[in-house]
Amino acid sequence: MDLLALVGFIVVVYWLVYIVSLFWFDCDLGLAWTEKFGKPISEKYHFIDSGNNGCALAGKVVWVTGASSGIGEHLAIELARHGVKLVLSARREEELDRVRNKCLGKKLEGREGDVTPPLHKEVTRTYQHYLIHHSGFRFTGGPIPCVCVTEVGKLLEPTDVLTLPLDVTSYNDHQAAFDTVIQYFGKVSSGVRSADYWYEGALLDVLVNNAGRSQRCVWEEVELEVDRQMFELNVFGVIHLTRIAVRYFLEKGTGHVAVTSSIAGVQGVPFSGTYTATKHALHGYMNSLRNEKYGRNLDVSLLCPGPVFTNFLAESFTGKANEKFGKSVNPDDRRMTAERCGHLCAVALANKSSEVWMAPLPIIPLAYIFVYFPNVGKVLGHFLGAKYFLKLRDSRESVQAN
Asked: TM spans, by residue (predicted)?
């Protein structure tokens, strides 16, 4: 076998494995690889250098909006299991308290086995952190001002989870809410920089914009007021709060913003015209932000779930202003669990993934076809029809198509 034939054989085998793998996982292949071989959400000991390039989220502060139910709730619970300090925001304060109690009641699980801390370092215990002051050198050369080690394996303290009621469409409240977060964690774990060391205890590390609502309606029957209301909630509220956070992260020198988008942000879906538009808008905003801030140590993540077992369907917009769709999710629907979705989102955050997809079969393979082979996707769309995609999302014909 000559070299050219060998290369051709390897390419064919690669693509066969790639295609088969699409039907094996409930997420895109990059996220599947990251979940198995990427950075863990937490470890028994978590090391962070002065550039905050640690391999886990343990000990960091993550603000989750839309945290009172669904994906936001289960993302918060998953993060709490790994020692992540939390800010939980939504409109319903009593639901936030319920989620907070769940977060405080979960056992934290690090990876099995200890990671031996570096030698020859002076260790001082601070609030839920170890401060390590040393004069070591990186393997790649150059001094390391400090390393911090977060110990995982005990429940979060009550002061580690802040509930902060917030309506993301009340833009005038955003700055005050952000200041509350900074001031709160500034008191709990004072972050102090100096030329010699850094007390780990950043006031905010990650903002996760999860608030939003879906939609079910025939495209031409949507009132303009619905378009306005959905963009106010799904786009403008997200972007306004994110801009406040980005200014802070750029001044701090590091930060991470994430948005819960949707498979609808990757490919237009039938009977959710305005919803699809809002998610595509978020992708435009966030991709622009990422490309503009290369080299500024600002990470941007787009989290794109498909159908999930939440109350999302009942709360969805329709074509009429101030009307809710009202239909419930059935237990036998083909959907991803909110727990599984929350875990995958946490994995993506820990690894600072740029864009991830997660959904039950056959949504992920279809998404690959429509994105990477649009001509094939066009033919497939004509063949399958809009009702097929509606049933794929809702496990039934939830909208009466014209």
From this structure: 6-25
Question: Could you tell me if residue 166 is inside a domain?
Answer: yes
Query: Quick check: helix, strand or coil at residue 348?
Result: helix
* pLDDT value at residue 396: 87
Residue among 348, 370, 346 at smallest CA distance from 263: 370
* pTM of the complete model: 0.82
CA distance 74 to 197: 35
- Over range 123-136, report the average pLDDT: 30
Q: Are 371 and 266 in contact (CB under 8 A)?
A: yes
The CATH number of whichever domain residue 56 belongs to comes to 3.40.50.720
Residue 85's contacts (CB-CB under 8 Å, 6 or more residues apart) are 59, 60, 61, 62, 156, 160, 161, 185, 189
Q: Do 74 and 339 touch, CB atoms closer than 8 A? A: yes
* Range with the poorest average pLDDT among 72-76, 81-85, 194-198, 235-239: 194-198
Average pLDDT over residues 208-216: 96
Model confidence pLDDT, tens digit, residues 12-58:
888 788 788 888 899 999 999 999 999 998 764 444 443 444 447 98
- Position 298: which residue type? L
Full domain range(s) for residue 256: 25-394
Please give the C-alpha separations between residue 319 and each of 145, 268, 284, in angstroms, as whole numbers: 57, 17, 24
Looking at residue 109, what is its pLDDT? 44
Q: Report the domain count for the chain.
A: 1
Residue 13 lies in a domain: no
Q: How many residues does the chain have?
A: 402
In a domain, 12, yes or no: no
Instruction: Quickly list DSSP for 141-205.
Output: SSB--EEEEEE-SSPPPGGGEEE----TT-GGGHHHHHHHHHHHHHHHS---B-SS-B----S--
The candidate with the shortest Cα–Cα distance to 390, out of 398, 380, 378, is 398
User: Which three-class secondary structure string do you get for 55-121?
Assistant: CCCCCCEEEEECCCCHHHHHHHHHHHHCCCEEEEECCCHHHHHHHHHHHHHCCCCCCCCCCCCCCCC
Residue at 367 is within a domain: yes
User: Is-cis flag, bond preceding 117, omega within 30?
Assistant: no
